[in-house]
Design brief:
Length: 173
């Protein structure tokens, strides 16, 4: 019986770092993707609240409520946690107070600062957003999207980029 012919073994080329131009292009693509993902996230939240018959909140306000969570914080603390500009936080917090989703009171130590926290209605909104995110995480996990590369590795990379950007901002000032 003739022996099967094996193809010659070829050496695997060593992995080399990508050229700088390719790396820059990949970085720029990541930035564009991140921006699109953020807009899509807002669209998803908008659609969810429209399905629930809640047209009184913008997606930004719903995310602000979600990020406020169970904490009692100042607007400045909330700004450092999320993706909000200073005037955006103030405007949206004012609207959320008017709508009854957030309550506020002056700080005892610094009367200029205002501490905010969710009302019962705000907690219900936070719970809806939490449920939406949990449904999406389950669907993505079932599809395998969160596995290759592992979402934890992706998050680690984004935290490194965040740290680099923060260092750049501090260096400027």
């Amino acid at each position: 019986m003739p022996q099967p012919q094996h193809s010659p073994v070829r050496p695997v080329p060593a992995l080399r770092p990508a050229p700088a131009v390719a790396r820059t292009d990949a970085y720029l693509e990541s930035l564009q993707l991140l921006e699109r993902l953020h807009r899509l996230l807002q669209d998803i939240i908008k659609d969810e609240f429209e399905r629930l018959g809640r047209a009184d909140l913008t997606p930004v306000q719903a995310l602000l409520i979600y990020n406020l969570g169970g904490s009692e914080v100042t607007a400045g603390e909330l700004r450092t946690r999320g993706m909000y500009q200073g005037s955006n936080v103030s405007y949206n917090l004012k609207k959320l107070v008017e709508l009854g989703y957030v309550s506020h009171e002056r700080c005892d130590m610094d009367r200029r600062a205002v501490r905010v926290r969710l009302t019962h209605e705000g907690q219900e909104v936070r719970d809806r957003v939490t449920e939406l995110f949990a449904r999406h995480a389950a669907g993505l996990a079932m599809s395998g999207v969160l596995d290759d590369p592992a979402i934890e590795e992706v998050n680690l990379q984004w935290r490194r980029i965040e740290r680099y950007w923060l260092e750049q901002i501090r260096y400027i000032y």
